[in-house]
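Repro:
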Amino acid sequence: MADSSADQVLAGLDPEQRAAVTAPAGPVCILAGAGTGKTRAITHRIAYRALSGEIAARHVLAVTFTARAAAEMRARLTALGVGGVQARTFHAAALRQVRYFAPRLLDGRAMPELLDSKVRLVTLAAARAGLRTDRAAARDLASEIEWAKSSLVEPDEYVVAAAKALRETPHEPAKVAEVFAAYERIKRNNGVIDFEDMLRAAVWGIEEHPDVGQQVRAQYRHFVVDEYQDVNPLQQRLLDAWLGGRDDLTVVGDASQTIYSFTGATSGYLIDFPRQRRDALVVRLVRDYRSTPQIVGLANAVIKQARGAEARLRLELVGQRPPGAEPDVRIFTDEPAEAAAVAVRCRQLISGGTPAREIAVLFRTNAQSEAYEKALTEAEVPYVVQGAERFFERTEVRQAVVALRAAVRSTPGGTPLVQAVVDALAAVGWAPDQPPPGGAARERWEALAALVQLAEEYASTPVLVPLGEAAISERPVSLADFCEELQRRAAQQHAPTVEGVTLASLHSAKGLEWDAVFLVGLADGTLPTTYARTAEQIEEERRLLYVGVTRAREWLWLSYASARSPGGRTRRPCRFLPQFDRSGGQRAAGGTENSRKSDRRRNQVISCRVCGATLLAGADRKLGRCPTCPSDLDEELFERLREWRIRVAGEQKVPAYVVFTDATLTALAERRPSRDEELLAIAGIGPRKLGLYGAAVLALVGGATVDELAPEKTSATEA
């Protein structure tokens, strides 16, 4: 009976998934690309082993990185007929064990209170170190302490460790170390612990107390770790303690989705897994069931250029879904135009039947959300913000609006709006220079900078003043006018929504997916961010874009604005997207109709008609397939086309390639177009050559011989 149930678990698996599920006991490394069914593989592996009698479900510990993923894993296992598996996050598993063993480890005392946030104690520690901090600065110091503790770095080791890791510290490293040490003292004096302490307590309990270690290892004998590329040294230390030298460990991960290294996470454990465990079986899942071949092809093209250690485990995904639309690549004059176009397209998608919850707008930083909140509001498209507060609900923005209102009375009349806003924001500690170090402080600075940008845009439209008798005058906008505008925007964006388009940063979108995805703001300086300076940081930015692309199931939009605001400085497109025009010039508006058509053709993403991969080389784009994909060339047609080309070139007294190149002839013989539209779809054939040669080419494709065609009378100068 058990064997029959186990066999049913194998039904519907592809060959690679089946290999992962049926792998023998021991170290197994599943390299799973986006959309390849990694959760399916690991849950079916657990179920197969349990239902076949190889293991007992109660002896399995499956570790995930989010409570949502753990809940999904438990639900899937229950549906497969397997209960009793412990699926938890590292922190939840450690908390359960520490609470259970606390009386034994602490001489009868209960586990100390667990801090839900470090910020309050870090603020006290900073004060003792002589630093005055606001909430953003305290969050940055707390994040730095979390990185150190997750990396097994002590306060007296911090300065050297931070230098080796090339950390961009929120203060001088020695001062951060001083805050770190003060934080640890305050924490001990208050009798509380933080999340990293809890993980370390679990390690200490197992490693230093043989009876505890024996009991834990008797309970948990088989381990599964999801998202293994995101493990940090402290979590790995806990995993090693659980294992106790045993090797029944299955890990699953994707080095190309390593995007949290700034927190201490490292893909090194995934990369080194086969070397550290010589008997390890490595299984690669590359069949992508999430996205269309066109989206898969673009994802492959983005990550194909990756360098560094993670690139050694790069996976070439193979799309399994029916063909879909090509990714929609757009270039706009400025960010407001980009946001407005996104909002219009969202409304069209919803009107066409796509649920709003199946649409996402993804950006690099949370400060970019305001433009899209405004555009969606004006387009009457509902939205929700994932992983962050709405722009006007953020603490620093509310404080800034209060400061702006207060400044209305003290600002001299005639002060230019932008200058008035900058002066008012000085009251909340903002200055128009380089943003401060530290992620939270930088995010706060960027949010306030977004208010200055709004002022720049708003100042360009003067206020109309009626004078009576239909006469109208103009006056510059004032700070009071701007405050009223901010109040109007805030009121609009505070409208409650039950379901809507998701606005999210690329980091918070990890692990999620939607039918339609907009990747916006793809300009160098934003993605990759200007703060990415080392080769490793640049590669992480590339992987961030890869994660964004692979969130889309059916439809993908990629866009950037040539300038941040109307008339602003021209920017270059994201270097990770080779299909963008490399000149970085404005191509979204202006120019002749022919030049705009040419721009659209150059910016179009062309996929291989055989495997769906994005084609980058000119010859490949012309052929419409990868050079390694099988050709369906009609050799007889190719010979007739070549004979016709020789005759036409001779009559026009020009080289043969002037008429059509060999690549174009090959494309014609492979694709066999039957209409003008199909001819124009072949790179290298534009309206002019269609007019000169289109009728003859279509006749040849239709079966005509060269002798049956009327002699070409086109002159060499016309060609």
